[in-house]
Amino acid sequence: MAERHPAEQLLTEADHLVKTGRLVAAAALIRQAAQVYAAEGRAEDEARCLVLAATAARLGGALSAAQADADGARRAAPADPETAVQAVAELAESLVAAGRPVQAIGEYTTAIERWRDSRGEPGALAVLLHRRGLAHALADRPDEAIDDLQAAAEQFAAAGLPRAERAVLVEAATLATERSTPQRGARLRAWARTAAARAGDQEAEVDLDLLDAALAVTGEDLDRALSLTWRARQRALDGVAPVKYLSAAIALAELHDLRGEHGSAYEALSTAWATLADLMGSETARAVVQPRLQLLVDRWGVEEFTAVKKRYEARRRAQLGLA
């Protein structure tokens, strides 16, 4: 049997480390593989390895090493446009992770320009625009962020990725509603609503219902807010979307609490606990719901919380014929 190439052996060992969560150690091995390829004059393989090393280092929290690896990949990859784009994009990712979104925006822009020069896949451009949009948002540039998110949605559609298109539209609508003009927010919410309704995308519609509910609260229309939040929770339940269901249940509890309806606030979270236990397991349900119940204890006091809980449990026993 032929002996395996040294770089391939290093990459196999790195893959095992990645699977066991040892990302920084994996990055070191991938970096060694890149050095092997560099010594052989295989610049494209060197660059690909350095991109992988940068990703592993970034996810492992070694941001300086990630930036150095990505910069090395960029220098090694001029003959491979796709890898060059990946290298610059990975450098941008590490800058975002390091809390430097303005610098990241510049790198994303370079990656987008290189993508256009190489005429890459529309899906890759959509991802780059999406990530640059999020960096703009972090840099407190909401209008530029919304522009990029809209463009990303269009590119996802062109790439035949409608689910990603809808998710990014919801992000754009949320950002426009919270940080841009009312007209732009309304236009993007309508666009996202149309796309979500056409596809029957329950998760997107949950997010949009909760966004509209938040607007209703701002406008002091708590009845409308409550109606939208109930609908969002039911959509999430119908779509078997536990994370969205939790968001809707928490919003529902908050609304009832705002209205002074302690019993209904407690019931929203208690029901969520039982429902999420069925969907995600009892320990996960406890971990995500119990902190919200503790917030009610802190707000109401132990005595009031205990009384509300007892009344709810007595009512449930009566409903089940156990009283």
Topology (SSEs and partners):
Blueprint: H1 6-19, H2 23-39, H3 43-59, H4 63-76, H5 81-97, H6 101-118, H7 122-138, H8 142-158, H9 162-179, H10 182-199, H11 202-218, H12 222-238, H13 242-258, H14 262-280, H15 282-300, H16 302-319
Structure summary:
Helix content is 85%, strand content 0%.
* CATH architecture heading of the largest domain: Alpha Horseshoe
Q: What gross morphology would you assign?
A: globular
Number of domains as seen in the coordinates: 3
Helix count? Answer: 16
- The separation of the N and C termini measures 75 Å
CATH C-level class of the largest domain is Mainly Alpha
Care to count the β-strands? 0
Strand proportion, as a percent range, falls in under 5%
| Name given to the CATH homologous superfamily of the largest domain | Tetratricopeptide repeat domain
Helical/strand content category: mainly alpha
Write down the overall mean pLDDT.
Answer: 94
Our Rg estimate from Cα atoms comes to: 25 Å
Task: Give, in order, the helices and strands.
Answer: HHHHHHHHHHHHHHHH
Query: In percent, how helical is the residue content?
Result: over 70%
CATH fold descriptor of the largest domain: Serine Threonine Protein Phosphatase 5, Tetratricopeptide repeat
In the predicted model, the low-confidence regions spanning at least 5 consecutive residues are: none
Largest sheet: none
Notes on the structure:
The protein is mostly helical. It folds into three domains: about 1-120, Serine Threonine Protein Phosphatase 5, Tetratricopeptide repeat (Alpha Horseshoe); about 120-175 and about 185-200, Serine Threonine Protein Phosphatase 5, Tetratricopeptide repeat; about 210-323. Helices cover about 85% and strands about 0% of the residues. The protein is built from 16 helices and no strands. Helix 3 (about 45-60) packs antiparallel against helix 4, helix 11 (about 200-220) packs parallel to helix 13 and helix 14 runs antiparallel to helix 15. The longest helix is centred in the last third of the chain and has 19 residues, at about 260-280. The mean pLDDT is about 95.
